Batch of 2 targets.
Target 1
Amino acid sequence: MTSSQSKLPPRVLYWFRTDLRLHDSPALHAALELKPEFFYPIWTWDPQYVFAHKVGVNRCNFLLESIENLSFSLTACNPKAKLHVVRGPPQTVIPALCKAWNITHLVYEKDTAGYAAVRDAEIKAYVLKEGIEVIDILGHTLYDPQAIIELNGGKPTMSISSWSAAAKKLSSPSRPLPPPDKLPSPGDMPLAGFSREDHPVMTGVDLNEAYRVSATTCFDTMAGPDGNFSIPTMEELGFPPATTSIHGGETEALKRLEAYCADKARVVKFAKPKTSPAEFDPPATTQLSPYLKFGCLGSREFLWRVRDTIDQWDKDENGKKNNEITEHPENLEGQLCFREMYYAAEWSQGLRFGQIRGNAICRFIDWRLQNQYDADGLKTHPRPLGHTRDEERLSAWKEGRTGFPWIDAIMRQLRQEGWIHHLARHSVACFLTRGQCYISWERGAETFDELLIDWDPCANAGNWMWLSCSAFFSMYYRVYGVKSFPEKYDKTGKLVRKFCPELVNFPDKFIYTPHLAPVDVQERAGCIIGRDYPFPMLDEKAEKEQCMQRVKAAYALGLYGNDPATFDGSAVTKLEQEAESPNTVYREGQKRETNHNIQKRKQQRGEEGISAKRTKVNGIKKYLVQK
Ligand SMILES: Cc1cc2nc3c(=O)[nH]c(=O)nc-3n(C[C@H](O)[C@H](O)[C@H](O)COP(=O)(O)OP(=O)(O)OC[C@H]3O[C@@H](n4cnc5c(N)ncnc54)[C@H](O)[C@@H]3O)c2cc1C
């Protein structure tokens, strides 16, 4: 701290980030403990987020609603307080604000994940050099991911049991801190000398172009059109209105938690695998993930509300141990633990957690449509889809027109609502990767990144690795059926009828397989398959078998994303040889196939497979798929 700053009473810049809430906020608590003379709550509206990240209208709207709600809550504590939004990159804005407003302390909730963690470290180093005290405190997760990894012997947590064993060595998460009921006022907030040139908006890339209905005016000024640090609007971002029914904000989060826990039996008996992915109004799980993601809901608040609800239930039952209480990890607390497990695993890999290349925990499988990488080996921006067979399959999957109603209904729900049930995520992720399409999980994760409100760099990449059997889970022979799986939960096809309205009049018998309905049934349903709704885009069973064979080969070879062979392309050749090897065992390890049999089987099915023609792209060999 410089000598002049050390003499000043604390002037605190509180940077809201992953904590759009006042309750359960260790960082906010620490900031107020400083007894600041002036308290500046700010949000930096980062152009990077708006242009270089496919953010989708529903997530953007949720974020705007959440910061608006936060601003109201700040004003409720002090009429002079509100959330001050500065429109520019945090890397330049935060240091400049510290200087312009004579800040003595910068306080924020620490983000351990993804690009934010890297960027924050840069900001912290810079601000510290200027003599400003930085207080960054964990609060987004229940445990410190770094501490978990250290307690796990420095190894990533690859299972819930390894995560639990490490977590047990730490003290249980504390009860949530209450929200403040009053706040100090901010001091003057001059922005004289701030210019757009010093806080540039990136140009040349706009990954959200397809969503925009008008030009983005949001960054025309640093402090909003009226210079009063206003919250940007969807119109200023050039976005059309959101389509989701899920609305952001701490108030809404706490209301939802309250409502969910009001039904004590539901909390006590919550068993994730039994919750139905076909339920949507209301969903069978809490649907609190968007609120946890943006920090509208504190994870300790959630945890302790669940624990207290279960305790209360126990008491209601006269203290008898109730055998209806679901056990870890299927219970609600267990769900939060899965979240923690992915945060810890991500911490161990850093940015490479979100991609295959360089990722030490991710098996190398020769998926189609893998990422392209920059000179640092990090994935580049998603590329536009062309017209190869796999790109067309990926587009059909994304848009919900695969011809498999269960898959299409989920993907349309995702597009409309920005949220889908966990087991629905399982279904579509398995289908895209090891189940049927053999397309890289990176492509699926990228789509979820665009469409999910709750997108999270740890949970998303982690779960995609799980579902594609690239990490965390290895039973690749367990594939979700596109008819048999949804039928376990709902034989009437509610979700399909809601999100694929063209199929609404099909009888239950054909709701998941309308292409098998006789023509007169299709006519009566007012929907002719191939005209009003697509035929299945692939042969589910044949593709499943082929995918399984190839994943099996990848397992046999045992390469991971950090193996040199994955960098020079030789991994692909090795895998191909392994797949064709007569020793490659099939399915549950019983049936062996010879090359001759494989060829014969391919011919019988008329499988196109992937062509032998290859090209060299970005230094690695890529398959060219012939249509
Ligand atoms: C392919 C795939 C991608 C996913 N991507 C994301 C993502 O980007 N962001 C995200 O928050 N979740 C993701 N999940 C995990 C999970 O599906 C969602 O967290 C959950 O469905 C959210 O609904 P809920 O709030 O009703 O969950 P509940 O069942 O009510 O669980 C409570 C909370 O626990 C956490 N949680 C539960 N299951 C998981 C899990 N498997 N992994 C991590 N956290 C979990 C969430 O924060 C959730 O809100 C993904 C799952 C899959 C299969």
Target 2
Amino acid sequence: MRAAADDPPAGHVVVVGGGPGGYEAALVARRLGARVTVVERAGLGGSAVLTDVVPSKTLIATAEWMTIADRAPELGIRLDALADGDAGPVGAGGAAAVLRHRIDLPAVNARVQALASAQSQDIRARLDREGVEIVTGTGRLVAPDRVAVTGTDGREQELAADVVLVATGARPRVLPDARPDGERILTWTQMYDLPELPERLVVVGSGVTGAEFAGAYTSLGADVVLVSSRDRVLPGEDADAAELIERVFTQRGMTVMSRSRASSARRTADGVVVTLEDGRTVEGSHVLFAVGSVPTTSGLGLEEVGVRLTPSGHVEVDKVSRTNVRGVYAAGDCTGVLPLASVAATQGRIAMSHALGDAVRPLSLRSISANIFTAPEIATVGLSEARLQETGTHYRTSMLPLARNPRAKMLGVRDGFVKIFAHTGTGTVLGAVVVGPRASESIFPLTLAVTHNLTADQVAEASTVYPSMSGTIGEVARMLHQRAQD
Ligand SMILES: Cc1cc2nc3c(=O)[nH]c(=O)nc-3n(C[C@H](O)[C@H](O)[C@H](O)COP(=O)(O)OP(=O)(O)OC[C@H]3O[C@@H](n4cnc5c(N)ncnc54)[C@H](O)[C@@H]3O)c2cc1C
Ligand SMILES: NC(=O)c1ccc[n+]([C@@H]2O[C@H](COP(=O)([O-])OP(=O)(O)OC[C@H]3O[C@@H](n4cnc5c(N)ncnc54)[C@H](O)[C@@H]3O)[C@@H](O)[C@H]2O)c1
């Protein structure tokens, strides 16, 4: 018999999918006393660890060093040219030749893959230590309380479950006339086998994935063309941040084609040609398609056991990760709630707390922080300005460029800003955007403010180090106070 939400913690939890949605849930379920089996067909850590978050951010770490190195001459750093002529002169003036930093892509990719695989092994070891059973194979629901697993050897076994958690994630969307070949026509999962830096990389799609890869490859030294179907890059993000990043991209030599929708791609003798819907063509040595994801929900037996899917194929869940079928929960990208690793993990944990009768706080997206790992980074928390306007919320906003910040000047940082939204009446911080180097770190005080309903005055009262980037956060908060007194 199934364990109901108010039964004592017990029973067998079967988790299908070992990404952040699945493995974090497994750890919580073990802590709550359940027997837990994770069914995973690729590797523990899921796409997040093996193909998406970890590899892309590791690649971007190298790109970040290249961006910093580019700025070195401005900070008075000169390197002598190599005698063998390997390095050309770089930088203004040309009086003192400097070394050109060059990317050894196979070395970068080897590091990326080693790091991803080590992290996957760490997660496996952690689950082992906690007593989670791991079954390698493809899972499928044959009943709401039974999961069939086809192993890599083709053998099938059935697991009886009191609770099932579906955490099968998503995969890259593929255009019918642009089939990836893993060599020249690529999805983001295939970027880590490239033997050399693409000479001219066409990136199709200017969402977060497209922007991150286009920015990184520009920094790594590739000639990049970003094909964006919309008016601007990062259409879903804060307009000031998107405008800034597009300007920085073009300043760094990227070609951004707006209102350009790709319809097909084909290989030529030594590269690719991408055809746009209006008939124009874009040539490159390689093309990366970053045109969104599709949930991995077909062939899982979900509809057969009565689990409701949305028209986009996502599993329909409520705020405690329940599907419409008792005992079947879902978490992460397969639900389409908010495709972030952090949200997947939270949904998975909530699902287990609910299923195993522990105290549970329903999912709230109000204070989720997110970061786009471009250079500069774009970090956001709370409500966006677009959402505040849509909902007719009375809000005030202040924004300061980082260029005025003394620490930024010392570091040679020119591009970036801090923007805070506060409620007109109460002064409560409703949301914020930080654009700058390591914005992913500096957003945290504002995440605390949004999470705990602090006012802009309370943020302003906290002291900041002088000189520091966070000084600008304090200053923007003070500007909101002055406006309230007008
Ligand atoms: C390029 C890129 C960069 C990203 N960067 C970030 C970032 O910096 N920060 C962030 O928070 N988010 C980031 N994301 C989003 C993040 O990757 C996802 O939100 C996260 O992976 C979702 O976790 P998940 O557990 O739902 O699914 P996944 O990580 O996709 O894991 C699902 C797992 O289920 C397995 N599986 C599927 N079907 C079956 C089956 N039938 N049987 C057994 N196993 C199965 C798969 O093999 C996979 O391992 C990024 C996404 C992309 C595409
Ligand atoms: N740093 C991070 O946290 C991070 C990084 C990557 C992805 N993600 C998560 O994944 C989500 C999805 O991001 P994404 O960028 O993969 O997908 P997306 O769906 O947000 O963006 C895809 C873009 O491609 C465009 N597009 C679609 N078809 C096209 C075509 N034929 N030609 C040209 N453009 C086309 C779309 O208009 C869209 O702007 C993000 O919202 C985020 O939650 C997070």
